[in-house]
Amino acid sequence: MDTNFVEELRWRGMLHDIMPETEELLTKEMVSGYIGFDPTADSLGVGNMVQIMTLVHFQRAGHKPIALVGGATGMVGDPSGKSAERNLLDLDTLNHNLNSQKKQLEKFLNFDSGANSAEIVNNYDWFKEFDFLGFIRDVGKHMSVNYMMAKDSVKKRLDTGMSFTEFSYQLIQGYDFYHLWKNNGVKLQMGGSDQWGNITTGTELIRRLGRGSAHALTTPLIKKADGTKFGKTESGTIWLDAAKTSPYAFYQFWLATADADVYKFLRYFTFLDVETIAEIEANDAAVQGRPDGQRVLAEEMTRLVHGEEALIA
Questions:
Q1: b/e 61-80 (16+ beta carbons within 10 angstroms → b)
Q2: Which candidate, 153, 175, 177, places its Cα nearest to that of 166?
Q3: Which DSSP helix (H) or strand (E) runs through 27?
């Protein structure tokens, strides 16, 4: 392996939960691993950057990254971290969103690097074959309601109420993992820490339905030092699409990062190494003028997402 993927996440502060034996597996062989992306908009936002960076680090460490775009799950709605039921999308909107997100992911991941080329899969491709009775018979009988009720994403919504549609979401996401494990040799699912419950439903389904084993790891949810939500400003979400958020506004967003967050964000969102980030931090502490961290972060991110020309402009 080129680098130790888990070590890389660890020093960057990007590791939250990890299942036993996952690190051993990753140092032993090339592993196929995936992260799911929610197709509710036709662009990914800076809130997706931790997951995109996780897949890039995964590929750089010699593993095979798979981005799953949720054509089927987008029709259902993920309750994790949500306080209310969300709007469901029609097929045309979904397909438009999926194609737009696909183009963005191709900027970050290498899709022609041989054995560990990145792949994009859409869970609608296997869910369109299922009918309701088939799903509850073949998949639903392997999960107890008690197990599903114990998940945080469900417990938090018991007072306010949750539809059966959203309750069943973890089964659908769990089946994605099972399907990719069985058909694509995927042994690892990654995601934000709010996804841990859904991801472990998948490992449980693989154990019960497939008599196999699979692994999981999550990244922390980004919290800004002042407690406000990362990736949103007064004018709304910061998108990766230049038509929705101009490269100038994108640059300004990173430039406005608080001093308390900037060195953490340099670890999360750039490929700078540990020494370079430490040096920037030490220099900023030594000078009494304007710190350099924000400028470096804004330049690195704008170059990564929009390219050198947009950065110069």
A1: bbbbbbbbbbbbbbbbbbbb
A2: 153
A3: helix 22-28
Between strands 32-37 and 64-69, the pairing is parallel
pTM over 0.85: yes
Give the tokens for residue 115.
């054995």
Alpha-carbon span 95 to 101, nearest angstrom: 10
Cα within 13 Å of Cα(280), Cβ side:
21
Tell me if 216 sits within 8 A of 16, measured CB to CB. Answer: no
Element housing 85 (H / E): none
* CA angle, 70 then 73 then 79, to 5°: 120
User: What pLDDT is attached to residue 76?
Assistant: 64
Q: Helices 169-184 and 196-210 sit at what angle, rounded to 10 degrees?
A: 60
Answer for the pair 188, 33: CB distance below 8 angstroms, yes or no. Answer: yes
- Asked whether the beta carbons of 275 and 228 are under 8 A apart, the reply is no
Express each pLDDT in 68-94 by its tens digit.
988 887 666 555 555 455 556 777 888
**Terminal CA-to-CA distance of the chain, rounded, Å?**
38
The rounded average pLDDT for each run of 10 residues, N- to C-terminus, in the chain (313 residues) is 86 97 96 92 94 97 94 65 58 86 92 91 90 90 84 79 82 93 98 91 94 96 86 84 96 95 97 96 88 96 96 94
Quick: pLDDT tens for 219-231.
999 988 888 878 8
Q: Which of 137, 241, 251, 152 is nearest to 200 (CA)?
A: 152
DSSP string, 140-207: GGGS-HHHHHTSHHHHTTTTT---HHHHTHHHHHHHHHHHHHHHH-EEEEEEEGGGHHHHHHHHHHHH
CA distance 175 to 127: 9
